[in-house]
Design brief:
This protein has 261 residues and is α/β, with parallel strands linked by helices. It is built from eleven helices and eleven strands. The chain has a six-stranded mixed β-sheet with strand order 1-2-3-4-6-9, with helices on both faces. A three-stranded mixed β-sheet has the order 5-7-8. Helix 1 packs parallel to helix 3 and helix 5 crosses helix 6. It is globular, with a radius of gyration of 19 Å. The model has no long low-confidence stretch (mean pLDDT 92).
Length: 261
């Protein structure tokens, strides 16, 4: 992982295998996520090397094991992968996914976990789990119903239908679709813009949105009020208001001038 101008660049580096998630890759992703908790990280860009973003778990690795050994191995893999997802979900820095080519299984989970998912027009998505007799991981059964609705989530999970990037955007799984040629520059631009923003306010906003579907309105309104009061009294909040009243771009602590996406 490299950090440049506040953007942590995390690359799944198994391009020759479609960035299939092995135990080693899952552990490396968890370690990289842990590094993103640094104050120097103000946005995270997650991308895959090679032609595909991530084709899911490494079935070749899994197929060499049987019975209890396979069960223990999969628990290790999911513990590491889910550890990374937990960190991504709770950190202040927003997460941008740069998605191209094949996106399957846990790759869909990683794409769904991002706050903003920028997809190439050649990207395709399929859940694939039940097609090989597995049940889902990577938070898919939590994130997918929230993004596309329970009925559509079950359709995708049970039929393993492959969908193109445009359909994925229409149903809410993807934020933006761009040409494959434009994808790297556009994803980097979005991440860099977020890195210039109010990171602490971003974190509060991410957590509020995540909690919204599991909280009653009365409890949730109190949570919003406390988060707003905390944000307003922070250095970011003070700078944001001063910039607005002064009719100038905000310069948030640790960032540069903030302009829109």
């Amino acid at each position: 992982m490299e950090v440049l101008d506040g953007v942590a660049d995390i690359v799944l580096c198994r391009g020759e295998r479609g960035n299939a998630i092995s135990l080693d890759l899952a552990r490396e992703l968890r370690d990289a996520a842990q590094d993103c908790l640094s104050e120097n990280v103000r946005a995270v860009l997650l991308r895959g090397a090679g032609r595909s973003f991530c084709v899911g778990g490494d079935l070749r690795e899994f197929s060499g094991l049987r019975g209890r050994a396979l069960e223990e191995h999969l628990i290790e893999v999911t513990d590491a992968l889910h550890g990374a997802l937990r960190i991504f979900a709770t950190m202040d820095a927003p997460l941008v996914a740069q998605v191209q080519g094949a996106v399957a299984g846990a790759g869909v989970g990683l794409a769904a976990a991002a706050d903003l998912t920028i997809a190439a027009d050649d990207a395709t998505f399929t859940l694939a789990y039940t097609g090989i007799g597995y049940s889902p991981d990577a938070g898919v059964t939590w994130s997918l119903p929230r993004l596309v609705g329970p009925k559509r989530a079950l359709e995708l999970l049970l039929t393993n239908r492959r969908i193109a990037a445009r359909e994925a955007a229409d149903m809410g799984l993807v934020t933006t679709v761009v040409s494959a040629e434009r994808l790297p520059a556009e994803a980097r631009r979005v991440a860099a813009t977020l890195a210039r923003g109010a990171t602490r306010a971003f974190g509060a906003t991410r957590r509020l949105v995540s909690d919204a579907l599991s909280s009653d309105l009365d409890t949730y309104l109190d949570r919003e009020a406390r988060a707003l009061a905390s944000a307003a009294t922070s250095p970011e909040g003070e700078e944001g208001v001063a910039a607005f009243l002064g009719k100038r771009p905000a310069r948030f602590p640790g960032g540069t001038e903030q302009r829109g996406l």
